[in-house]
Amino acid sequence: MAANYLPLYRPGHTVTFSVTEAVKAGNFCELGGTDWSVKPATGTGAVIGQAGHDAEIGDRVTVEIGKPIHEAKASGAVTRGDSLKVAGADTVAKNDTGTVHGIALASADAGELVPFIQV
Q1: What whole-number distance in Å separates Cα of residue 56 and Cα of residue 20?
Q2: Fewer CB near the last or first residue (10 Å), C or N of the chain?
Q3: What is the mean pLDDT of the segment spanning 38-57?
Q4: 114 shares a domain with 75
Q5: Residues 20 and 59 reside in one and the same domain
Q6: E strands, the chain, where?
Q7: Could you give the CA distance from residue 69 to residue 104 in angstroms, rounded to a whole number?
Q8: What distance in Å separates the CA atoms of residue 67 and residue 43, rounded to the nearest whole number?
């Protein structure tokens, strides 16, 4: 029987993240200091969407995103916030140059699944 694939989240799905610095409704959010966390964007980090409501440190916040969130095997070590590229039919790798295909939402070692937002 053929296998199927679905992304972790599709555009329009509610995606919640932990808050590492207080955010206000409408703030652009970038990745925070831990996996699956956000803080207000500074313009230097990986911006993933906008906060749907006010949230304090330690709370959960709904972030409005416009791209799907996928998960694939890391071909090497990946750190949260890394730009990723497709490395093969079913793997992604850290990308220092060239076309960016995603942003890692969590850290992973080689062979582990890494969640990433498609860009």
Answers
A1: 8
A2: N
A3: 93
A4: yes
A5: yes
A6: 15-19, 28-31, 37-40, 47-51, 60-64, 69-74, 83-88, 91-94, 102-104, 113-118
A7: 10
A8: 19
Determine, yes or no, domain membership for 8: no
- Residue 119 CB partners (closer than 8 Å, separation 6+): 67, 100, 101, 102, 103
Q: Could you list the residue range(s) of the whole structural domain that residue 105 is in?
A: 69-118
Q: What's the confidence (pLDDT) of residue 60? A: 97
Mark out the alpha helices in 40-109 (DSSP H runs): none
- Contact indicator for 15, 63 with CB cutoff of 8 Å: yes
Looking at the fold, whether 57 and 79 belong to one and the same domain comes out as no
7 within a domain of the structure (yes/no): no
Nearest CA among 57, 66, 55, 51 for reference residue 13: 66
Query: CA of 75: how far to CAs of 27, 110, 119, in Å?
Result: 33, 5, 19
Structural domains of the chain, count: 2
Mean pLDDT confidence for 83-87: 94
Tokens representing residue 98 in the block: 């060239």
